[in-house]
Amino acid sequence: MNVIPKSARRAVTLEYVTVALSAGEAVAALLSGIVAASVALVAFGADSVIEMMSAVVVLSQLRSKVLSEELSAERVHRSHRIIAVLFFALAAYVVLTASLALILRDHPSENGLGLWVCFASLILMPCLAMAKRRTSERLAEGGFPVSARLLKADASETALCGLLSLSTLVGVTLTAWVGWWWADPVSSLVVVYFAAREGREAWRCDPI
Length: 208
Description:
Number of strands: 0
Number of helices: 7
CATH topology: Alpha-lytic protease prodomain-like
CATH class: Mainly Alpha
């Protein structure tokens, strides 16, 4: 009988937490962003959806490990590719929506819910990303390098979500308090570089 490592169980728990938090973020950010006509908040909500999808992909793989099933390198490689596509999709979406907002000179309105969602994410997501990275290190030390690399890749998406919450918070705050309407779409562009970089790294990840 195979002994299920504690680090594998912890990794699964972290992914369940990620799915729950991302779902809540997505609903709140998308609703507040649509109401306030905020590109930054809608982009943040879209990132939360991608974070949730990424967590679901990783969770399905890690559960195989917990259930003592074989976790093939090929399956994990495909998961890395899915995560990479999600990163690229986020970058493309942010560039498109931010550009349209700047061209059309959209003026978002103040939104208290959006500010609170970004603030909560700014605190929770970096902590969650750190926990995933520590767990991935323990998986690697315990002889599960494939699972470790998959969890580490997902940790980058979680950290990116925290980064976007910061840029969104800055943009929404400047728009509401200073009246700089352009700060909202411009702040959303901060994530493009990091999304493209992480997507490229995930795509190039070797299957072994």
